Amino acid sequence: EFVILNGNIINRSEASIDIEDRGYQFGDGVYEVIRVYNGKMFTAQEHLERILLSAKKIGMEITFTVEEMKTLLAELIQKNNVQLGTIYMQFSRGVSPRNHPFPVPAVPQSFVAYTKEIVRPLANLENGVKAILKDDIRWLLCDIKSLNLLGNIMAKQEAVAAGCYEAIQHRGDIVTEGSSSNISIIKDGKMHTHPADNLILNGITRRKIIEVCEKGSIPYVEAAFTLADLENADEVFLSSTTSEITPIVEIDGKQVGNGMPGPVTKKIQVLFDKEIETECGS
Ligand code: PLP
């Protein structure tokens, strides 16, 4: 199995990271997860542009271009012969004696990427999943895909401990996003999703959903919605690169709508599948 370390494709067994890597010690870095369908990356352009933007927002200038990263990642997929799976990639601010301020002069960033084979979550897509509500205790720069995920993993763990798939986070009355997904609701045929501000990660799947809503003439609005809106929603779904568009059929033990995935969510799923087919083939 091959991995990328600092721009080189090497054997995983030969890859190592220094104990004073700032990603390891501070979570000082950014990451992406890209889906691979049919041996091809889906929405790679958007993910790679987002990692450059995330890096910029933490004062880190990634030295690779989108095209350079695409070429390297495509080579990794080919070498590992991945048909259906994901690529995980991260950049940290590099290796330097532990000290909070950024290293001066700057040191080379640590760039790691590897592949994983995973199937599509077909049962969840079809039947939906359960969620809990959870106070959003995270910081105020949730638009950055940062390696710091403590708030997210603590929320997820609470969901899992409750026998659920996801934690729907809220700041006061406003629903923000899941612990590793965006949350959208359908009310009277219209899709509502939180605007892309500092309180959520602007999901690539979320953006694709907006695109297919436009193509499929599904009305939508990018506007914050409340816990009451969530409770009164006809349909609720989560979206992410790995979970795609997963219906949420129960929240804190209460049924959403009639407790089954709804028609608008299903329509969005079909349109989303078409996007995958168009970009990656079937
Ligand atoms: N929000 C959070 C906090 C996430 O971690 C993720 C992805 O894992 C998303 C939203 C969805 O983003 P994307 O659709 O780009 O995977």
UniProtKB/TrEMBL annotation:
It is an enzyme of class 2 (transferase). Its cofactor is pyridoxal 5'-phosphate. One of its GO terms (molecular function) is D-alanine-2-oxoglutarate aminotransferase activity. Its EC number is 2.6.1.21. Keywords: Aminotransferase, Pyridoxal phosphate, Transferase. The keyword Transferase applies. It catalyses: D-alanine + 2-oxoglutarate = D-glutamate + pyruvate. GO terms for cellular component: cytosol. It comes from the Bacteria. SUPFAM superfamilies: D-aminoacid aminotransferase-like PLP-dependent enzymes. One of its GO terms (biological process) is carboxylic acid biosynthetic process. Belongs to the class-IV pyridoxal-phosphate-dependent aminotransferase family. PANTHER family: AMINO-ACID AMINOTRANSFERASE (PTHR42743), D-ALANINE AMINOTRANSFERASE (PTHR42743:SF10). Homodimer. This is D-alanine aminotransferase. The gene is dat.
